[in-house]
């Protein structure tokens, strides 16, 4: 199994920045993808960004392209989400997602609140 620990959420003003981190432990040697989803109050969970564990080719939702950057540190088994030019509509609980041998794992979620 894979365990995930997220950090970095918080309260920020519109236009500000935050960096989320997600550290994986356990069966990290067979992780193929890591990424981020988010869920705003009253809405379904939605895809934000993902990256392959090897190689490049990050993926982004249209709503965050040009503002968010995903990266990884394989040595630390950690994926990051640098969020810039934040908007109130980015307010949500952000969840880390990992795919390992075709099986998906979720982090506990971290709250991001963007004030006007």
What sequence of helices (H) and strands (E) makes up the elements? Answer: EEEEEEEEEEE
Secondary-structure-based class equals mainly beta
Gyration radius over CA: 13 Å
Q: Report helical residue fraction.
A: under 10%
Strand content: over 45%
Total helical segments? 0
Unreliable parts: none
Shape field: globular
Average pLDDT across residues? 95
N-end to C-end Cα span:
40 Å
Q: Please summarize the sheet with the most strands.
A: 7 strands, mixed
The total strand number stands at 11
Write a structural description.
- It is globular, with a radius of gyration of 13 Å.
- The strands form two sheets. Strands 2, 4, 5, 6, 9, 10 and 11 form a seven-stranded mixed beta sheet that branches.
- It has no helices and eleven strands.
- It is mostly beta strands.
Task: Briefly summarize what is shown.
The chain has strands spanning 2-7, 10-13, 18-26, 31-39, 46-52, 59-60, 68-73, 78-83, 92-100, 103-106, 110-115. The chain has 116 residues and is mainly β.
Helices, strands, pairings?
Elements: E1 2-7, E2 10-13, E3 18-26, E4 31-39, E5 46-52, E6 59-60, E7 68-73, E8 78-83, E9 92-100, E10 103-106, E11 110-115
Parallel strand pairs: 2-11
Antiparallel strand pairs: 1-3, 3-8, 4-5, 4-9, 5-6, 7-8, 9-10, 9-11
Descriptive keywords:
mainly beta; 4-stranded antiparallel sheet; 11 strands; globular
């Amino acid at each position: 199994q894979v365990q995930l620990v997220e950090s970095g959420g918080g309260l920020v003003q519109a236009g500000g920045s935050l960096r989320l981190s997600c550290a994986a432990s356990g069966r990290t040697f067979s992780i193929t993808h890591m990424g981020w989803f988010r869920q705003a109050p009253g809405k379904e969970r939605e895809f934000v960004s993902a990256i392959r564990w090897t190689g490049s080719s990050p993926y982004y939702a249209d709503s965050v392209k040009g503002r968010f950057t995903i990266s990884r540190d394989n040595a630390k088994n950690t994926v990051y989400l640098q969020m810039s030019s934040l908007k109130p509509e980015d307010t949500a609980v952000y969840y880390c997602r990992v795919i390992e041998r075709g099986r998906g794992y979720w982090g506990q979620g971290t709250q991001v609140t963007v004030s006007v």
